[in-house]
Amino acid sequence: MKESEKIDVSTEEKIKEAARIVFYKKGFAATRTRDIAEEADINLALLNYYFRSKAKLFEMIMLETLSGFIQNMLVVLNDEKTTLEKKVEEIASRYIDLIIKEPEIPTFIVTEIRNNPDMLLKKLPIKQVLTNSMFFKQHEEAVNKGEISEPNPLHFLMNVIGLVVFPFIAKPLLMGGSGINDTEFNALMLERKKLIPVWIKSMMKGE
User: Fold this and answer.
1) Residue 147 belongs to some domain of the structure
2) Are residues 172 and 72 in the same domain?
3) Residue 66 is part of a domain; what is its CATH number?
4) What separation in angstroms does the CA of 80 have from each of 74, 121, 137?
5) CATH code (residue 25)
6) Which of 27, 50, 142, 184 is packed most tightly, with the most Cβ within 10 A?
7) Domain termination site, one of 12, 29, 52
8) What is the 3-state secondary structure (H, E, C) of 85-150?
9) How many domains is the chain built from?
């Protein structure tokens, strides 16, 4: 590879990382290409050379973020060697760790999914996550055995995701209302790795 090609790749990745930071914080509408150029410490002309429009750059970042989020979940949901309980533990643990590291992701995803759901449905394997996973087959088996009382697996999955993600979305309210700081909030979230599987088991068990 030529030296110039290495520089090109490095610059492109630098712009993408800067765009990711700014989009996560501001969303698509409030972000200017100038904001991304400043974050990347390059001039605006160079950014426009690599990425002709803010919309194209945003779509790339959005798809990469959601694809990583969904593919990570697919690995867990399609594991034939783990039980439903273990899958809940894995989802809680993986995503709490991820969101503590990247706290802007939940609000970013929720906001942009609401703004453009059709694009995401066409380009991401969401149906595969929701209907064709080992998780859903195991859920059906548990319902048939009387181990789970709720027959709709979407309730199961929504409960897990909601318990993991919502506290991060509501973080400003929770911190402001309780007077805790970031360190204390993250400690609470880490505690939820063990608590969420217990709550889910209690909510979904057969009567």
Assistant:
1) yes
2) yes
3) 1.10.357
4) 12, 26, 10
5) 1.10.10.60
6) 142
7) 52
8) HHHHHHHHHHHHHHHHHCCCHHHHHHHHHHHCHHHHHHHCCHHHHHHCCHHHHHHHHHHHCCCECC
9) 2
> pLDDT 10s per residue in the chain (207 long)?
344 444 456 888 999 999 999 998 888 888 999 999 999 999 999 998 888 888 889 888 888 888 788 888 888 999 999 999 999 999 999 999 999 998 888 888 888 777 777 766 676 666 666 677 899 999 999 999 998 988 888 888 889 999 999 999 999 999 999 999 999 999 999 999 999 999 998 887 755
d(Cα 47, Cα 8) in Å, to the nearest integer? Answer: 12
- 81 close to 54: Cβ distance less than 8 angstroms: no
Q: Calculate the alpha carbon distances from 91 to 60, 74, 96 in Å.
A: 25, 10, 8
Q: Which domain holds residue 36?
A: 1-52
Does residue 57 belong to any structural domain of this protein?
A: no
- Regarding whether 107 and 18 lie in a shared domain, the answer is no
Owner of token pair 């889910």: 200
Determine the pLDDT at residue 1: 38
Same domain, 103 and 168: yes
CA–CA dist 102, 200 (Å, integer): 25
pLDDT at 203: 84
